[in-house]
Design goal:
Largest sheet: 14 strands, parallel
Strand order of the largest sheet: 1-2-4-7-10-13-16-19-22-25-28-31-34-37
Number of helices: 4
Radius of gyration: 28 Å
Helix content: 10-25%
Mean pLDDT: 75
Shape: elongated
Low-confidence stretches: 32-38, 394-398, 435-470, 473-492
Number of strands: 42
Structural class: mainly beta
Length: 492
């Protein structure tokens, strides 16, 4: 090879080496950017029998123990839990740690002596993809303690054992703004998810599947999602959850204010006699919004309410489908300004029952109760407009004289068919096509200065299928945005 050719070859090799060096640097910088953008400062591995020091467990072949991770993890660390059974509570002393099962649900926390499987009293902690067995007694699968903010409980599986007594799947207490509880499966406990606070906090509870409650709750002490403490839970949303096999209340808002409950699917209670779908109100619970939910029962309970409230002011019940409960919707004494709008109720007994309340707005509902559609008990200042009565009571004349229901529609066929999962299909010639109206401030005109509908209610105009808005709940698929119905017919 001539001297000039050698020079050219050497120059080309230097050029290629320079390019490779730049590529390596770019890869390193990219990985660093990803880690920083995701808030990850270090990645570590834990195993049930791990023995490595913290500085060594950055490799999957050298995992450390949970005790080491608890004391050593720092803000931004990602801690992988390798498959196997862990017999101690997973918790961290630092803020901002993410605990992630290396294989989804492969890391299992199971010890009959543990009060909690996963626990946090620090901010920005994430528990993702772990499995927790909850032992008998007053125990909890995952516990978020007071003032732990911006924590995430996602994609975990929580399983009760030994037919649990007073056990909880997930419980958050006294503060903790920004809590996210999403994508979890909870089964065989006496209470699925509990939020308790005297001051309240913001949060999101969505896409959870809560089912097959322990038989201990058949006597009545069993709830799917429960709020307690009387706190103000402004900006707390409960949505897209499926709850089945509960015994007392699928969703209990009796101790929470300003909660939005929307797009949930609640079906087939397992209680002996009772079983309520959504319970609102209470001396410490008001201004809640119950919107766009599907509630389905078998129709053979002696008692049980689809949606019920007692002593809770400014309640909105709108666009829900309630089928098969002994009482479809019941508002008892002490409620001021309840608004019941655009719901579909089918009950083997009573459609809507209204007690001693003030300033009721009852508009555009389909009421189909076997014994009666609508019953008032000492109700004051009720406005009723354009409700459809499928089976109206024999006391219609007195009802009309007192409450001016001339605008209501009395007939036997709303031309609505029921689907198996609690959806309704409205026929093109149904009067429901044109009876609904938007939830706007005009509904409260001349009614009450406090009766305005929440700004964050998502509603679609359905003019392609009629002149107005429809009645009942849309079907919202998990993790998908709601879509308007087709221009051929309205599918719920």
């Amino acid at each position: 090879m001539s001297f000039s050719l050698r020079i050219n070859y050497f120059a080309k090799m230097c050029f290629l080496a320079s390019i490779l060096t730049k590529i390596v640097i770019l890869v390193i910088l990219f990985n660093l950017y990803v880690s920083v953008s995701q808030g990850i400062t270090g990645t570590y591995y834990v195993a049930p029998n791990g023995t490595a020091a913290w500085t060594e467990c950055t490799a999957i072949e050298r995992p450390c123990s949970q005790a080491t991770a608890k004391d050593s993890a720092k803000d931004g660390d990602l801690v992988y839990y390798l498959p196997g059974t862990y017999t101690e509570t997973i918790l961290f002393l630092a803020h901002g740690v993410t605990a992630l099962s290396y294989e989804k649900h492969g890391a299992v926390i199971n010890n009959s002596k543990l009060n909690y499987g996963l626990y946090s009293n620090t901010d920005r902690v994430t528990f993702d993809g772990l499995t927790v067995y909850v032992p008998n007694g007053n125990n909890c699968g995952i516990k978020i303690n007071p003032d732990a903010e911006d924590c995430k409980i996602i994609n975990n599986r929580i399983i009760g054992v030994n037919d649990n007594v007073y056990t909880y799947g997930i419980r958050a207490e006294n503060g903790g703004a920004g809590l996210v509880v999403s994508g979890n499966e909870i089964t065989a406990v006496s209470q699925g998810i509990g939020f308790s606070s005297v001051s309240g906090f913001s949060g999101l509870c969505r896409d959870n599947y809560i089912h097959s409650f322990s038989s201990y709750g058949t006597g009545g002490s069993s709830d799917g999602i429960k709020f307690s403490g009387g706190g103000d839970f402004t900006e707390f949303v409960v949505e897209h959850n499926e709850i089945t096999g509960w015994h007392q209340d699928a969703i209990d808002l009796f101790g929470g204010n300003n909660v939005m409950v929307r797009y949930n699917y609640i079906h087939h209670c397992s209680g002996l006699n009772a079983g309520n779908g959504i319970k609102a109100g209470g001396a410490s619970g008001g201004s809640n919004t119950i919107y766009g939910n599907r509630l389905v029962e078998s129709g053979d309970r002696e008692t049980g309410y689809g949606i019920a409230s007692n002593s809770g002011d400014n309640l909105v019940i709108a666009y829900n489908i309630v089928i098969g409960f002994n009482y479809g919707i019941a508002i008892f004494s002490g409620d001021d300004n309840p608004r019941i709008v655009n719901n579909y109720i089918q009950s083997p007994n009573r459609g809507i029952v209204i007690g001693d309340v003030k300033n009721l707005l009852l508009v555009n509902n389909i009421m189909n109760g076997k014994n009666y559609d609508l019953k008032f008990n000492n109700t004051n200042e009720a406005i009723t407009k354009k409700n459809i009565h499928v089976n109206f009571p024999s006391t219609y004349d007195s009802l009309n004289e007192r409450y001016s229901v001339d605008d209501d529609i009395f007939q036997t066929d709303p031309k609505v068919s029921l689907l198996k999962d609690g959806r309704i299909e409205i026929m093109p010639d149904s009067p429901v096509i044109d009876v609904g109206i938007p939830l706007e401030d005009k509904l409260s005109s001349g009614f009450s200065t406090d009766s305005v509908f929440p700004d964050h209610m998502v509603i679609y105009n359905q003019n392609n299928s009629g002149k107005g808005w429809e009645i009942g709940a849309f079907v919202y698929h998990i993790k998908l945005q709601p879509q308007p119905p087709s221009n051929l017919k309205v599918n719920y």
